[in-house]
């Protein structure tokens, strides 16, 4: 005998433009099962029309984020045995256009990330003709920033993004911080032309939902405060 989970899953049929919910009961007999395993079980055994997205199945690609009992999370990293309820309401990520059922359109994330120029901007020639050297200490400053998998969980949990879709959002701002704190980067002025207004670093109300939900335990809110400090000290 395993644990019986009752799932209410949001559904959207784009052909009929119809929104509804489906209810499923799944007995989880394997202690290692994740929410993604439950989705796959439903699709294989109960309802092959249920649509969800995943790729790596191990917390790397960022494609499987959904909302469970109101909280954004990665389906592939959500272990059933650690959930605090057997009744689960599963919805798509909040604030994004729904394509079908649990699959949302992430393209807004890509546009926002592109707008902060997520690459090194280097103006001087490198000291070595092979590479731009970075010290171990400077490299360590990027810990807690470079690990983002662009899952969108933080953006979906951000009340500012819900109200203002032109806000760059926690994920793009974290990405900006990752490059602007890089000792090899010389693009602060260019990036602050994009970042230093109410749709950028001053749009955040420091609610820190982003930190609460990030599956990689990153802190986009802290990165935004770091960017504000950097902007104040800009020469
Ligand atoms: S900061 Fe965390 S929650 Fe936000 S997109 Fe990156 S990995 Fe996902
Ligand atoms: S399937 Fe890749 S992060 Fe979940």
- Bound compounds: iron/sulfur cluster, FE2/S2 (inorganic) cluster
How many β strands by DSSP?
7
Supply the CATH superfamily name of the largest domain.
Answer: Alpha-helical ferredoxin
Shape estimate: elongated
- How much is the average pLDDT? 95
Topology at a glance:
Layout: E1 3-13, E2 18-28, H1 35-46, E3 65-68, E4 71-74, E5 87-91, E6 98-100, E7 103-104, H2 107-115, H3 136-140, H4 153-156, H5 159-163, H6 169-180, H7 188-195, H8 209-213, H9 220-232
Parallel strand pairs: 1-5
Antiparallel strand pairs: 1-2, 3-4, 3-5, 6-7
The structure holds iron/sulfur cluster and FE2/S2 (inorganic) cluster.
Overview features:
235 residues; alpha+beta; Ubiquitin-like (UB roll); Fumarate Reductase Iron-sulfur Protein, Chain B, domain 2; 2 domains; five-stranded mixed β-sheet; two-stranded antiparallel ribbon; 7 strands; binds FE2/S2 (inorganic) cluster
Describe this structure in words.
- With 235 residues, this protein is α+β, with helices and mostly antiparallel strands.
- It has two domains: 3-104, Beta-grasp domain (Ubiquitin-like (UB roll)); 107-232, Fumarate Reductase Iron-sulfur Protein, Chain B, domain 2 (Orthogonal Bundle).
- It is 31% helix and 17% strand.
- It has nine helices and seven strands; from the N terminus they run E-E-H-E-E-E-E-E-H-H-H-H-H-H-H-H.
- The strands form two sheets. It has a five-stranded mixed β-sheet with strand order 2-1-5-3-4. A two-stranded antiparallel ribbon has the order 6-7.
- Helix 2 runs parallel beside helix 6 and helix 6 packs across helix 9.
- The radius of gyration is 20 Å and the shape is elongated.
- It starts with a strand and ends with a helix.
- The mean pLDDT is 95.
- The structure holds iron/sulfur cluster and FE2/S2 (inorganic) cluster.
- Residues 148-154, 170-171, 174, 214-216, 218, 220 line the site of iron/sulfur cluster (SF4).
- Pathway: Carbohydrate metabolism; tricarboxylic acid cycle; fumarate from succinate (bacterial route): step 1/1.
- Keywords: 2Fe-2S, 3Fe-4S, 4Fe-4S, Electron transport, Iron, Iron-sulfur, Metal-binding, Oxidoreductase, Transport, Tricarboxylic acid cycle.
- Residues 5-96 form the 2Fe-2S ferredoxin-type domain.
- It comes from Thermodesulfobium narugense.
């Amino acid at each position: 005998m395993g644990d019986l989970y009752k799932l209410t899953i949001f559904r959207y049929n784009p052909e009929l433009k119809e929104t509804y919910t489906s209810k499923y009961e799944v007995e989880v007999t394997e202690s290692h099962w994740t929410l993604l395993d439950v989705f796959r079980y439903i699709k294989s055994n109960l309802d092959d029309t249920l649509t969800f997205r995943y790729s790596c199945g191990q917390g790397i690609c960022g494609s499987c984020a959904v909302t469970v009992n109101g909280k954004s999370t990665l389906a592939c990293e959500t272990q059933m045995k650690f959930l605090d309820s057997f009744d689960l309401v599963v919805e798509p990520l909040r604030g994004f256009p729904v394509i079908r059922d649990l699959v949302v359109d992430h393209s807004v994330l890509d546009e926002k990330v592109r707008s902060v120029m997520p690459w090194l901007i280097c103006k001087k020639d490198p000291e070595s003709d092979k590479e731009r050297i970075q010290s171990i200490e400077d490299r360590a400053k990027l810990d807690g920033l470079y690990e983002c998998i662009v899952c969108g969980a933080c953006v979906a949990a951000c009340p500012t993004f819900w109200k203002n879709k032109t806000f760059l959002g926690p994920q793009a701002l974290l990405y900006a911080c990752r490059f602007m704190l890089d000792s090899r980067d010389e693009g602060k002025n260019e990036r602050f032309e994009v970042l230093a207004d109410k749709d950028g670093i001053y749009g955040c109300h420091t609610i820190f939902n982003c930190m609460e939900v990030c599956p990689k335990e990153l802190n986009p809110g802290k990165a935004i405060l770091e960017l504000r400090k950097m902007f104040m000290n800009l020469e």
